[in-house]
């Protein structure tokens, strides 16, 4: 399914939701937007694969690339913590790091805190790989965005900014989807409830 199909499906879902009332319309709109986002992600994955293959003669796998991004963000992370972030078993995490170490993208060093721990860090070639990969991805995205109208580009920036904020909120452990806060109870009512509880 292409984006035109997704957009048409979203419009149909939004129309059907609007006929059922505000709550149904909001739910249908969210589902339609999520569907389009999924299709965009699928297209980006194809684009990313092309860019990754062009960066190096020995491209890393998707799982290995995820490890590199984590190490870039959390330099010095140990294998146990990396496994928790990946949701993978220690043997699998160790094999991923072995492959990246063989490529020269990751190095293991003894922890200054505990001799039993090993810290993981990106090497200079590893950081260069990520830098080149991002540059190629950006080139592809710039070429695509350049074909859009100014209004569409502005809407894209705004929409993606809101989307990133929503995802960040979910990853940070806040309510996702966000829940409406209950209205504050009047002070007098709170005092009455407290007196009733003491007298019970």
From TrEMBL:
GO terms for biological process: response to stress. Keywords: DNA-binding, Transcription, Transcription regulation. Residues 33-165 form the HTH marR-type domain. Residues 1-12 have a biased composition (Basic and acidic residues). Residues 1-25, 176-200 are annotated as: Disordered. SUPFAM superfamilies: Winged helix' DNA-binding domain. Gene3D superfamilies: Winged helix-like DNA-binding domain superfamily/Winged helix DNA-binding domain. Residues 13-25, 176-186 have a biased composition (Low complexity). GO terms for molecular function: DNA binding; DNA-binding transcription factor activity. This is DNA-binding MarR family transcriptional regulator. It comes from Streptomyces candidus.
């Amino acid at each position: 399914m292409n984006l035109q199909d997704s957009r048409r499906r979203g419009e149909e879902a939004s129309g059907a939701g609007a006929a059922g009332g505000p709550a149904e319309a909001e739910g249908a709109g969210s589902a339609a937007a999520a569907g389009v986002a999924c299709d965009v992600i699928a297209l980006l994955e194809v684009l990313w694969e092309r860019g990754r293959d062009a960066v190096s003669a020995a491209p890393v796998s998707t799982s290995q690339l995820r490890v590199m991004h984590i190490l870039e963000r959390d330099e010095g992370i140990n294998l146990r913590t990396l496994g928790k972030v990946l949701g993978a078993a220690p043997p699998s995490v160790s094999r991923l790091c072995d492959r990246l170490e063989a490529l020269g993208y990751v190095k293991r060093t003894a922890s200054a805190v505990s001799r039993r721990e090993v810290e993981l860090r990106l090497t200079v070639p590893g950081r260069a790989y990520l830098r080149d990969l991002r540059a190629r991805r950006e080139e592809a995205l710039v070429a695509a965005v350049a074909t859009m109208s100014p209004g569409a580009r502005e809407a894209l920036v705004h929409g993606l900014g809101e989307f990133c904020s929503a995802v960040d909120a979910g990853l940070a452990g806040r309510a996702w989807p966000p829940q409406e806060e209950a209205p504050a109870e009047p002070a007098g009512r709170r005092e009455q409830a407290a007196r009733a509880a003491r007298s019970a």
